[in-house]
Amino acid sequence: MSNPVTVRVWGDFACFTRPEMKVERVSYPIMTPSAARGVLEAIFWEPQMYYLVDEIAVVKRGRWVSFRRNEVTAVISMDSAKAWRRSPEKFRPIEAGGGAADGTQRNMLALEQVEYLVTAEILLSALGRKTGQRIEKYSAEFERRARQGKCFHRPALGMREFAADFEWVEARDGVALADWPDEDLGIMLYDVFDPSARGEGFRWLTSDEIAASGEGTARHEGRILKPQAVFFNARVHNARMPCHPQKVKLITPKGGVDHAA
Description:
The structure is a single chain. This protein is an alpha+beta fold. It has five helices and ten strands, in the order E-E-H-E-E-H-E-H-H-E-E-H-E-E-E. The protein has helices at 33-43, 78-86, 126-130, 135-148, 207-211, and strands at residues 4-14, 25-26, 49-60, 63-72, 103-124, 165-168, 182-191, 230-237, 240-242, 250-251. It starts with a strand and ends in a 10-residue tail after the last strand.
């Protein structure tokens, strides 16, 4: 693995929601690769690069905790978004909280007092390769931000309400891990996007391009990816869960296997 980065992530609560639970949230017993990617992208991300999570190591497993929280029964639809654009003053937002029309209370089975080591590989996207970027620049920028505690937005442990703290880890082998010898966790959500397609880059516009008009205007064209759930068979060995696409089998909803270890 080239250009590895490792950060220590911890927080008071975490909920890595199992998608098979339809109404009330139940967490996986460990951080998912998509949640780990979200933490890294909250610290630093640009369209010219992307992360492949290599491993999630468990420092503190945490303990199960159940409580009730306010959620909403309504969802944002495309029609409601268009109605808001046409007449913002007539649009009624979704309201949550006690007594709200769209609010409801639901149970949650979450984790308390968790801590992980997230190791990932930084790679250039198609846009980065096309523009001649050097991967060392992005690795150095990530390290600088992680050492200083800077982030684009506050990382979270599965849900925005569960804020996460983080710090740079120089040598992950020197960190004592939890007592978690071996366990097969079964099928786990890997990501909501196909990781093999993330290297295609992203479609985005600069401020000059947004202001410009005409078909001849240069655009930074990536590939628009539709969300597609990808799963894998999660296994923990000595408190470490391998996640790199070259080390695990990724399962698509159609039953196919994208990568083999």
